[in-house]
Amino acid sequence: MTSKPSLTCEALINQAADRINSDSPRLDAELLLSHITGLGRTSFRAWPEREVTESQAETFEALVAERVAGTPVAYLLGHQEFWSLPLKVSASTLIPRPDTECLVETALGLPLPEQARVLDLGTGTGAIALALASEHPGWRITACDEVDEAVELARENSRLLALPVSVVNSSWFSQLEPARFDLIVSNPPYIPGSDPHLGEGDVRFEPASALVSGTDGLDDLRLIVTQSPDWLVEGGWLLVEHGFHQAGPVAALFRDRGFAEVRGLQDYGRRDRMTLG
Ligand code: GLN
């Protein structure tokens, strides 16, 4: 007689966590089981012997198999939290990173008018624009992306969260209506094409167009820094995210283009990840 596989939350999570190869295997397993059962993650610890149904266990196993094969948890759940906002994600956009919340925090600390005009270049899911909109209902925020699916997704997130952001289909500035902004923010692609990091973890499943930018990773940042002054009001700000080895070259781009008050800023892990001018 074969013994029935255990259907307790604890057993399912343990077996999954043993197989998932990530920085947080147990968390990944808990998030997937929570997604399927509708049970809160903390309940798995409070009541580990609780059983799920056979069909829930089967659905869980299917998702775990995909996670074991490397699919990011956010793609399996269909959403990712950013700035405490539940954002829908899809395989056509970058998964918003907690590091980028640091960029949001920096933007919120700038001296800007009550009705600031703000532009988020390469918005993806809409993460940065929507986070800013959630804090400043008075700001007039435009977000753009060159990928149709990203534009649709950012619009959908804006609608679902009831946060007004005007989302435009545009590769950087090319399709934008002429305007002047108080603040331009961007988390553009900045990984060099040959970076071995691209062969590891979640980035393998994310769109290269959201990650890679030429041989030195700076092609898009060069364009953004060069063109931004034509889209900023006098005294307006440009704030960009970049890789932690790029702070020097990016600051040089800002200075060469005539930006004043160029400041390098660190992310929550104390790495040089943002430049403001
Ligand atoms: N920080 C991300 C990573 O290294 C990349 C984000 C980006 O290219 N904008 O995975």
Structural overview:
- The chain is an alpha/beta fold.
- The chain has two domains: 9-70, Helicase, Ruva Protein, domain 3, CATH 1.10.8; 82-276, Vaccinia Virus protein VP39 (Rossmann fold), CATH 3.40.50.
- The protein is 36% helix and 17% strand.
- The protein is built from ten helices and nine strands.
- The chain has helices at 9-19, 25-37, 41-46, 54-68, 73-77, 99-108, 127-135, 148-160, 219-227, 247-256; strands spanning 79-82, 85-88, 117-121, 140-145, 166-169, 181-186, 232-241, 263-266, 272-276.
- It has a seven-stranded mixed sheet with strand order 5-4-3-6-7-9-8, sandwiched between helices.
- β1 and β2 form a beta hairpin.
- α1 packs across α2 and α2 (25-37) packs antiparallel against α4.
- The longest helix has 15 residues, at 54-68.
- The structure holds glutamine.
- Glutamine binds at residues 94, 97, 187, 189-191, 203, 211.
- It is an enzyme of class 2 (transferase).
- Keywords: Methyltransferase, S-adenosyl-L-methionine, Transferase.
- Residues 14-78 form the Release factor glutamine methyltransferase N-terminal domain.
